[in-house]
Amino acid sequence: MNRPLKNTWSIILAAGSGSRLGEAAGGVRKQYLEFKGAPLFWHSARTFSRVAGVKGVVFVFPPEDVIPMEKQLRQFFKAEELGLRWKVCAGGERRQDSVRHGVAELPRDCDGVLVHDSARPFVSARLVRELIDCLDQGAQAATPGLSITDTIKRVADGVVTETLVRAELRSVQTPQIFETALLMQAHEQAVQEGWDVTDDASMVERIAEVIVIPGEQGNIKITTPQDLAKLEEPRVTVPCVGWGYDVHRFGGEHDRPLVIGGVPIAGPYHILAHSDGDVLLHALADAILGTFGGGDIGTHFPDTDEKFSGADSSLLLKEVLAMADEAGARLVHADLTLIAQVPRMAPHSAQIAKNLCRVLGLERHQVNFKATTEEKLGFTGQKKGIKAVATVTALREV
Fold first, then answer.
1. 54 with 23, same domain?
2. 148 burial class (0-12, 13-18, 19+ CB within 10 angstroms)?
3. Which of 67, 104, 239, 383 is 20 to 30 A distant from 2 in Cα terms?
4. Mean pLDDT of the 50-78 span
5. CA proximity to 333, closest of 314, 349, 356
């Protein structure tokens, strides 16, 4: 009989000591190990938040960690609102004790509960949804399980006593889902009768039927030092594109001589600027900063700082290139456009392109420079100033 759950909560068990990882984890309990910038237990919370049927989560931590972890969770939920109600409680001596403490924190109207190990950070929202569906369709309890590929033998004193039927065996995972009342009943009976179990399904199966649904190969548990490698993401090289724009007004004969791309441009035109006013190199510097999220040149070389008065933009660009190198951004292409009604840039284009290649350390086919007018329209068309845009492509290992 179908009876959809109305208020499902999850219990994330993060109260273990992680003793099997030992020194390999640097003394950090596995539930606190960071993966993609967040501790393992938070990844499970994120997954549960992506399933509409899950309304809340109880985090179970070691007793001594409850207060500091509650403070940390407030910060996590403030920075990343998951849309879940949440509580924190202290774990017990055994895993089943920690679960029992978590169950005690569930709201009275909670009719379904998912119990999950924080050391399984790769569980998918799809698997959680399938477990909830299983109870919605009439089951009282369900667990994910994987078929066994090895032959399993029962051994006593080093001697095989039985070969188990592999087709009948499953390696079970978490999360496991239960009707809340049923899980409470199982834990009460476990206390009264002294049961000692390794998971909640083995407790509940003594009093009710537990359905097994297909598990996920990727839903692994971080247990041994060898498992830590699974938290190391493979590094890949990705293209990054930065875009830059700059504009300067023409000034009088007492202002800065016109310099474009590090090349002095003889003639009557001067630039109003704090530095040397090289509009092309300024746009290029901003584009390079964009490839690694480095801000803009105004932040690094403010026009309020006298030490940059009249500064050679080629030198400023070299500093930006050093920042890019430190950030691991390797430039592979630059495309630049100068927009100006005057002066004519055709006589200077080849020299500018050559100088850009030299400064950037790139081959000629990797640097494209061009100039255009705005057909006497707007700021530059009225010969009031000059502007430039630049697009830079870099490769970064992430």
1. yes
2. middle
3. 104
4. 95
5. 356
For residues 222 and 278, state if they share a domain. no
> pTM to 2 decimals?
0.62
Reading the block at residue 35, the tokens are 């993966």
Q: What burial class does residue 203 get, using C-beta atoms within 10 Å of its C-beta: 0-12 exposed, 13-18 middle, 19+ buried?
A: buried
CA 351/CA 349 separation, integer angstroms: 6
Straight-line distance from the first to the last Cα atom of the chain, in angstroms, rounded to the nearest whole number: 50
Write down which residue in 180, 201, 231 finishes a domain: 231
Q: Which residues contact 4 (CB under 8 A, 6 or more apart)?
A: 136
What the block records as the tokens of 119 is: 């050391």
Which residue ranges are tagged as binding site for a divalent metal cation? 246, 248, 282
10 Å CB burial of residue 68 (0-12, 13-18, 19+) is: exposed
Close Cβ partners of 17 (under 8 Å, ≥ 6 residues apart): 29, 62
Q: 3-state DSSP call for residue 34?
A: strand
Domain span at 329: 237-397
Q: In 1-33, which positions are buried (b, 16+ CB within 10 angstroms) versus exposed (e)?
A: eeeebebbbbbbbbbbebeebeeebeeebbbbb
**Residue 150: CATH number of its domain:** 3.90.550.10
> Could you tell me where the DSSP H helices lie in the chain?
40-49, 66-79, 95-104, 125-136, 180-193, 200-204, 279-290, 297-300, 313-326, 349-360, 378-381
CA distance 58 to 87: 5
Q: How confident is the model at residue 24 (pLDDT cuts 50, 70, 90)?
A: very low
Shared-domain flag, residues 222 and 243: no
Q: Which residues are annotated as a binding site?
A: 246-248, 274-275, 282, 296-298, 301-305, 340-346, 372-375, 379
Give residue-wise pLDDT tens across range 331-357.
999 999 999 999 999 999 999 999 999
User: Do residue 364 and residue 280 come from a single domain?
Assistant: yes
The strand pairing partners of 336, in sequence order, are: 369, 390
- Whether the per-residue pLDDT at 182 is higher than 80: the answer is yes
**Phi, psi torsion values for 101, nearest 5 degrees:** -65, -40
Residue ending a domain, among 193, 210, 231, is 231
